[in-house]
UniProtKB/TrEMBL annotation:
Compartments reported by the entry: Cytoplasm
Keywords, alphabetical: Aminoacyl-tRNA synthetase, ATP-binding, Cytoplasm, Ligase, Nucleotide-binding, Protein biosynthesis
Gene (name only): hisS
Self-association and partners: Homodimer.
Record-given protein name: Histidine--tRNA ligase
A matching Pfam family: HGTP_anticodon
Originating organism: Pseudomonas fluorescens
């Protein structure tokens, strides 16, 4: 017997009972970004592999271990995008929309792919919403990105469950000086480092700061601090960011070990973290990448952005029981019709009502059925009200109106008064 078909490990279906929460979350974020003046951009899922090697860095875990890379029929090496920033930079360069110093405030949404060990909150296909801003170099735009995420947490009801961590990586020159000092210190304690950290010493030593190994963390207590190596420009920028966050009343902590896993970051880096989801604590992260556009072949262009993980934020909403009750209801009114004449009339009447109430969620029973079976489907739909149309109602040009979720008697409503009645009742419901 052939093996039953199933989804690839770590790539999950989002089922109909789950999508209302996803749509609520996505709509909330999209509305907020619209209000802050960000414009949506949509990039391909597949890019040339070289894009990610040049941007993320060839000695990062993502490029070395996690990317889904393959050759197409032309022999080109292609990769399913593991993150969105590089693809967005490629798009603005290709179409010249940041040329001449044009400011661009962009956002995107979609799936990303990394071959990791699947676990709760970490999947091989995962979804992100990201923002990228180009040609603004001051701490004010860094602050705006953080402020708008803070506002989003408030709208979602999760502010008390997240914490903002900040750090500054300085310029590439100051980071280079720090790297030399850090490697010198770690080499003196190399026998106490875990195997992964020893490997990173020669490839990406700043990532050692991000280790979860307890023994290596103990070694890092005495390590040089990045703040001591910051150049004056980066220090001024960071102080300006903190001043704006203080003015906005947004609490934060300085995390000197925060480096992020991508090579292109400079100056500001930040993460929103939670302790409500176990090991997968980062729900949104980003920072400044002023040299990335030039590194990818463009003219010097400053950039800053973030990405938030949709799966983790959905999980956080569920864990904190911050799922609005109304989003579980996909139907406002369920129309039951009995007999062919009533079914024809129900179709015509429902379309007239939809013309007058375009936002009304009205479902007509399909597949006929007895009075009992149709009412069972009406109740299962989650509708607030049932409409009943049979031969008797049709003869009188009325329709039965029955509350399903509360008190109230069934009554008859004239066809021409139905839309006005529903407008009042559904709003009140």
């Amino acid at each position: 017997m052939s093996k039953s078909l199933q989804a690839i490990r770590g790539m999950n279906d989002i089922l109909p009972e789950q999508t209302p929460l996803w749509r609520y979350f996505e709509a909330t974020v999209a509305r907020l970004l619209d209000n802050y003046g960000y414009k949506q951009i949509r990039m391909p899922i597949v890019e040339f592999t070289e894009l990610f090697k040049r941007s993320i860095g060839e000695v990062t875990d993502i490029v070395e271990k996690e990317m889904y890379t393959f050759e197409d029929r032309n022999g080109d090496s292609l990769t399913l995008r593991p993150e969105g920033t590089a693809a967005c930079v490629r798009a603005v360069l290709e179409h010249g929309i940041t040329g001449g110093g044009q400011t661009q405030k962009l956002w995107y949404i979609g799936p990303m792919f990394r071959h990791e060990r699947p676990q709760k909150g970490r999947y091989r296909q995962f979804h992100q919403i990201g923002c990228e801003v180009f040609n603004l170099d001051g701490p004010d735009i860094d602050a705006e990105l953080i402020v708008l995420t803070w506002r989003l947490w408030g709208q979602l009801g999760i502010r008390d469950a997240v914490k903002l961590e900040l750090n500054s990586l300085g310029t590439s020159e100051s980071r280079g000086r720090y790297r030399v000092a850090l490697v010198e210190y770690l080499l003196a304690h190399v026998d106490k480092l875990d195997e992964d950290s020893r490997r990173r010493l020669t490839t990406n030593p700043l990532r050692v700061l991000d280790t979860k190994n307890a023994d290596t963390q103990a070694v890092l207590v005495g390590a040089p601090k990045m703040a001591d190596y910051l150049d004056e420009e980066s220090r001024t920028h960071f102080e300006g960011l903190k001043a704006r966050l203080d003015a906005a009343g947004i609490p934060y902590v300085i995390n000197p070990k925060l480096v992020r896993g991508l090579d292109y970051y400079s100056k500001t880096v930040f993460e929103w973290v939670t302790d409500k989801l176990g090991a997968q604590g980062t729900v949104c992260a980003g920072g400044r990448y002023d040299g990335l556009v030039e590194q990818m072949g463009g003219k010097p262009t400053t950039g800053v952005g973030f990405a938030m993980g949709i799966e983790r934020l959905i999980l956080l909403l569920e864990t904190l029981e911050q799922v609005p009750q109304e989003i579980s209801r996909q139907v406002d009114v369920y129309l039951c019709a009995f007999g062919e004449a009533a079914e024809l009339a129900a179709l015509a009447l429902s379309e007239k009502v939809r013309d007058q109430l375009p936002n009304l969620r009205l479902q007509i029973n399909a597949g006929a059925g007895s009075f009992k079976s149709q009412f069972k489907k009406a109740d299962k739909s989650g509708a607030l009200y049932a409409l009943i149309l049979g031969d008797d109602e049709l003869a009188q040009q009325v329709i039965g109106f029955k509350p399903l979720r509360g008190q109230g008697e069934q009554q008859n409503i004239a066809f021409d008064a139905l839309a006005a009645h529903l407008a009042t009742c559904v709003v009140q419901g």
